[in-house]
Amino acid sequence: MERLIEIERLTKRFGGFTAVDDVSFTVARGEVLGFLGPNGAGKSTTMRMLAGFMAPSAGTARICGHDVQADSVAARRALGFLPEGAPTYPEMTVEGFLGFCAAVRGFKGADRRRVVAEAMAMTALEDVRLQPVETLSKGFKRRVGLAQALLHDPQVLVLDEPTDGLDPNQKHDVRRLIELLAPKKAIVISTHILEEVGAICTRAVVIARGRIVADEPASVLASRGAALDQVFRDLTLGEPVA
Amino acid sequence: MTPMLAIFRRELAAYFATPVAVVFIVIFLVMAGTLTFTLGSFFSRGTADLTPFFSFVPWLFLFLVPAITMRLWAEERRLGTIELLLTLPVAQWQAVLGKFLAAWAFCAIALALTFPLVLTVNFLGSPDNGVILSGYLGCLLVAGAYLAVGAAMSALTRNQVIAFVLAVAVCFLFAAAGSPIVTEFLSQRVPVLADIARGASLTDRLGGFSRGVIGLRDVVFFSAFIGFWLFVNGVAVDHRKAD
Question: Which of A97, A104, A134, A188 to mutate to test the interface with B (most CBs of B within 10 A)?
Fold first, then answer.
């Protein structure tokens, strides 16, 4: 299997506080990795380091073989990243914003119009393409962020809470989209919605207090206990699994 | 270069997508015009040149330029878009330079819109247009210097008010360093510092330009000054991007 994401002993300290502590895992093409953990467990920090936004205190990560520190721009070229909260420039129109992201990624002229149109089609944004992002509902904003991460057809997708704030129908659409993309890419999604793991992930990594407490196929994780939230509680509160 | 150009375009368009551009340009033009014709006694001087205009511009820019730059990085940090921008495949210097050049181009547009003054002096007399052109170049360089300072201050904080106040304070330091009050005070007490203050003064440097003298030393000074503050900007973004 082709390992598109390799994380090696990644550690991040803020002063005396260790947010991410010696985290290692790899994600191969075709895998959808659910990155689980309570709020503040270090999910977003890990993803930010993977996206080259934060420098790790120790350890490193590679995307498609490019080190996120030493070969940062090449790593980010192969990556589609949805930051936490899906930030966008509020005064720009949907089309303008996606056009900007495409331009930064080096798409020009007709090529640029094509990738923007395709990304809007995938995330059902065509009807609002001329609206400023600030006038959109939370669900639409999230999808604009998603479209931005997808538009260059990246090998690796890192999505920080892609379904947060979406209604059940929109969640369903996003999951369908991820399923559709999964065979050709390596995907990491962070979430604290446990049903998502069973619905779309092939593998689950559970993180608590900065450390990995479980890394196994989603089905194995689910079979550890009667209910997935009980398994999650046991793992993240540090008590032994029954 | 492509990512930098894309950032430049987005930033410049953002000024005009919000009321920032209109407010800035209108206030700048009204104040520049008023000061030139009243305090600058444009008509009663009896000389066809723009010396009074050029002497007021740096003091106007002192307050108006930090108003443009205060949002440059602080706003990105507040909205969280800094995470988006810096995880796109752009080198950090491209983001820093793209934002700076867009702000500079915006100031250039505001300066260019003072062209009726040039037409007026040309109508009333026969000024040396070369001198006027060099005066404009000097103003543009002062704007660039203030912008570089302001952008660096904006990168240091996520609070726009703090960014504005810090930028005005630092710019004022460099603007006032060459003024008679400061240099006389220093030359009586610490003569060594008086020379340094005069050397670091932006308004002193502008004096040459508004007389039509484009000195190599002055151009080098402005380039180094802008370069230094852009470097500070880059370091500040790098160190404080996450909090």
Answer: A104
